[in-house]
Every structure is written in structure tokens, then in C-alpha cells.
Specification:
The chain is built from 11 helices and no strands. The chain is an all-alpha fold.
């Protein structure tokens, strides 16, 4: 099995017949469909999971649990090797994302214990709770705190416009009318905000991309 971690269009990995109806499927349906394909030995399905999750999982292991970069890469690689080798014995009915994050978390804790390193207090509170909901809530809360901290650094007017656009769903025209500004000014301020946030959060972007709430940062 050869790993390819490229920024290519993941859809190109799929058989032609799947490309026709892929965009109409819900995300949860896509994951479970691909998981069943992977269990049948379809490498394109495994390639999808690897390309999509590998960068974010490495960031999680390195930035959230505080491993060294090489340690993080080794752990995530090992998780994916086992994910492929043990695919037929796995029974994942809900979230591939949660399964992979929890697998990485547990592997990281094993390494930290062996090295007698301290585990962050926040992590200890969830290390024995491997339910999908609690763990995803924890990871999202960590990312939300990082995002809010970066958001607070934007200039006041820039932040106000960005929040109205990306967090409240207003159109540029509606924001312009509300704040008595030109649509061009609104557009420029949103562009400025996105640039600042992407720079501030550059080390976390692969992880943020795995959560739909942060889709505007992709």
C-alpha cells in the first residue's frame, strides 16, 4: 500500500460510475459507503480517507496533544496501516472521523505514558471516554477557542463584517445596507478577515478543515 498525501481532487480517485452520484450523497452516507468499499479491498476508498484525514490528524497529534512532528506523523501513519490491515474486522457504524481521532488520541497517550510525559489536564478528562459525541465535542471546543482567539484580533469593523457574513449568513448587499457601507467595502473587509485568520490559524488549517463549521477557512 503506497500512501499519497497530495492536494489533488479526491474525486479523481473514484471509479467513474461513483463520480456521477457522489455529489448528491450526504457526508455521513459517503463515509459509510467508502468504508464498505474499503472493507471489500477497494484501495481508492482507503486513499480517500488517507488524503482527507491524514493532515488534520497529524496537526491534532502535534498541536493539540503536543507531540513532536515526527512522532505525530509516525503515529498517524501507524493508525492508517492498521486501519487498512484490520479493515474487515472493524465495525464502524457512525463516524470514521471519530474513530480515527480516538485511535490517534489513544496511541498518543500510550506514547506519552511510556515516556513519562505529562498529559494535558483537558485531555485526561476525556481519555477514558471514547464516545463519538463527547470526543468530537471536545475537539471542536478546542478549535473553536483557537478560532475565537484569532477572531478577536481582527479590527473591530472588519470583525463585525466578517461575523455578519460568515457566522450569521448575511449577504454582502445586506451587510452594506445594515452598516451603510458600499458592497465593495464589505467584500474587501471579508477578504482581509479571511487572510488574517488563515495566517493566524495556518498551523491548524488541516484540522479545521475537517469540521463543517470552519468551511469558510478552506
Amino acid at each position: 500500500m503506497v500512501f499519497h498525501n497530495k492536494s489533488e481532487n479526491i474525486l479523481l480517485l473514484f471509479p467513474e460510475y461513483l463520480q456521477h452520484f457522489w455529489m448528491d450523497m450526504k457526508y455521513h452516507e459517503k463515509e459509510l459507503f467508502l468504508f464498505e468499499e474499503m472493507k471489500r479491498g477497494k484501495e481508492y476508498a482507503f486513499e480517500f480517507f488517507f488524503n482527507y484525514y491524514y493532515p488534520g490528524l497529524c496537526v491534532y497529534a502535534q498541536k493539540i496533544i503536543s507531540l513532536q512532528e515526527e512522532e505525530a506523523r509516525d503515529i498517524v501513519q501507524d493508525i492508517f496501516v492498521k486501519f487498512w490491515k484490520n479493515r474487515q474486522e472493524l465495525n464502524i457504524q457512525f463516524s470514521i472521523r471519530s474513530y480515527l481521532f480516538i485511535a490517534v488520541k489513544n496511541k498518543c497517550f500510550d506514547l506519552l505514558r511510556k515516556k513519562n510525559r505529562s498529559i494535558r489536564t483537558q485531555e485526561i478528562t476525556v481519555q477514558n471516554d471514547n464516545s463519538d459525541e463527547s470526543f468530537e465535542t471536545y475537539v471542536f471546543a478546542e478549535l473553536e477557542a483557537l478560532f475565537n482567539n484569532s477572531l478577536s484580533k481582527l479590527p473591530d469593523r472588519c470583525r463585525e463584517i466578517f461575523e455578519l457574513s460568515r457566522l450569521h449568513g448575511l449577504k454582502n448587499r445586506e451587510i452594506a445596507e445594515t452598516l451603510n457601507l458600499s458592497e465593495k467595502t464589505v467584500e474587501n473587509q471579508i477578504t482581509k478577515a479571511l487572510h488574517i485568520l488563515r495566517v493566524e490559524l495556518k498551523d491548524y488549517l488541516p484540522l479545521l478543515a475537517l469540521f463543517e463549521f470552519f468551511h469558510f477557512l478552506r
